[in-house]
Design a protein that fits this description.
The chain has five helices and no strands. The protein has one domain. By secondary structure, it is mostly helical.
Amino acid sequence: MMDIKIKEAYDTLKEVIVDVSGVVHSLSQWKERQLIDRYREGLGAINLICLMIKAEDDVAQRFGKNISLTIEDRRKIVKNIVSLSNDLNVIIESDSMRSILGKYPQLAERVYLKMYGEREDYGPAEIWSDEKEFLFWIRTIPSYIEDVVKELDSVFK
């Protein structure tokens, strides 16, 4: 009789452990998803800024004109993009994100190429002072973002 109760208690304990493990796993997946969603939103914000400027420049060129951004406008745009990128880099360098990237090497490659490639594209701190350099820089950023988003989509469907 005692053996039966011990076995029942043991079986119940195993079920509880499995249930708790499932909850912990679900919570972990939820946290990963939240982190990835925050990262994706940041990428989207940078991409939107760049695409709006690119579209405005394309329209201006169709009419044989230049985009109507002052040096101060360009400086603020660069500052905003750099700030958003720095926020994304904090996410990338977090232990949680490193754990995620450790599971997905191709995603890690895309994320780090975006992070470090973008830094190379920043060039001099005064990239905003030269309109042509600024527009070239703005046009390159979406390609980094597109690569990362495609990889995110393939990993987190």
